[in-house]
Amino acid sequence: YRAKERGTGVEVFSEALRSRLLRRTDVESGLARAVEAGEIVTHYQPVFEAETLRLSSVEALVRWRRGNVLLLPGEWIAIAEASGQIVGIGEQVLRTACCDQRELGVPVAVNVSARQLAVPSFLAGVERALAECRPGALVLEITESAVIDDVDHARGVLSQVRSMGVRVAMDDFGTGYSSLSALSRLPIDILKIDQAFVRRLHEEEGRAVVSTIVGLGGALGHDVVAEGVETPEQLDVLRELGCGYVQGFLTGRPVALEQLTGRSAHEPQGGTEPGAGSDVSS
Ligand code: C2E
Ligand code: MG
Ligand code: MG
Ligand code: MG
Predict the structure, then answer these.
(1) pLDDT in tens, 227-255
(2) Per-residue pLDDT at 179 exceeds 90
(3) pLDDT digit string (tens) for 95-149?
(4) Are the CB atoms for 140 and 168 separated by under 8 Å?
(5) pLDDT value of residue 139
(6) Rg (CA), the chain
(7) Is the ipTM of this complex over 0.95?
(8) Fewer C-beta within 10 Å: the chain N or C terminus?
(9) SS3 assignment for the chain
């Protein structure tokens, strides 16, 4: 585990402790208390205009601070989705992100899973959260898999969300199985190119895929964001291809609000991300 190797100090733990912390039943019972215990933490990763590197927005990314350990979503979110606990957690992330938005000063994007979209109270939750944030400053990110089960329902919910002034981003674009025709009929404002494609930008085929997505986004009138940009070479190619926005470790890792706004430069309140410390933008 990278944090341990790099010795950031915040998340030193043994593999045994880690696997004990992550047993499914243990995750479920832990999560049941996590929201009220204040263990659900929201970090923010900046998104920049590719050409100018001007800060454009931030993406809210949930973390679970369990004891001394900061658990990334990859380790527990599938369990929270299966158990339905993602609904309560997602509501909290949405509220937190909207509350933090004014201080952030730029629009904030929040990830929404299929489970959340399916809950009837979802729209009411969005409306409540919106009261805290500047008009037009909320983006909801959905994935193809979140809409594929019931495209008509998703289209209805997303249309209503948009009528509240919220923008919609299609996350991990290109990794799902939806047809282009279904996707093109969804009310979407932003395409986020999955990092799997960005990682292949040094290959001709990878470049062709990204170029095609950029072209598609342009044709449909969507902004295009490349995710997982890690190297200056990738940034160069993305600029050449006309990709509007970039997000990745090259330009900024996810960090706690205080670190992003520079309110407290000393102690990371929200915890240090695994592998943090190599952020070229700081
Ligand atoms: P995502 O929405 O596609 O978010 C991007 C993920 O890529 C984040 O992982 C981010 O930390 C990571 N990332 C950003 N730049 C780079 C880079 O340059 N290189 C690499 N290797 N990775 C990079 P994270 O935070 O672990 O989140 C993973 C996924 O968990 C997210 O993917 C999203 O699908 C889900 N997720 C995160 N927060 C929430 C939430 O509040 N609610 C829901 N439902 N899902 C969430
Ligand atoms: Mg996302
Ligand atoms: Mg993504
Ligand atoms: Mg992803």
Answers:
(1) 999 999 999 999 999 999 999 999 999 99
(2) no
(3) 999 999 999 999 999 999 999 999 999 999 999 999 999 999 999 999 988 887 8
(4) yes
(5) 98
(6) 18
(7) yes
(8) C
(9) CHHHHHCCCCCCCCHHHHHHHCCHHHHHHHHHHHCCCCCEEEEEEEEEECCCCCEEEEEEEEEEEECCEEECHHHCHHHHHHHCCHHHHHHHHHHHHHHHHHHHCCCEEEECCHHHHHCCCHHHHHHHHHCCCCCCCEEEEEEHHHHHCCHHHHHHHHHHHHHCCCEEEEEEECCCCCCHHHHHCCCCCEEEECHHHHCCCCCHHHHHHHHHHHHHHHHHCCEEEECCCCCHHHHHHHHHCCCCEECCCCCCCCECHHHHHCCCCCCCCCCCCCCCCCCCCC
Q: What is the pTM of this model?
A: 0.90
Residue having the nearest C-alpha atom to atom 27 of ligand 1: 73
Ligand 1 atom at minimal distance to the Cα of residue 115: 44
Cβ contacts of 161 within 8 Å, gap of 6 or more: 123, 126, 140, 168
156 CA distance to ligand 1 middle (Å): 26
3 exposure class (CB count in 10 Å sphere: 0-12, 13-18, 19+):
buried
Residue nearest to atom 35 of ligand 1 (CA): 73
Query: What residue ranges line ligand 1, CB within 6 angstroms?
Result: 45, 61-62, 72-74, 77, 86, 90, 93, 111-113, 141, 171-172, 195, 227-230, 247-249, 254
**Structure token digits, residue 195:** 């990092």
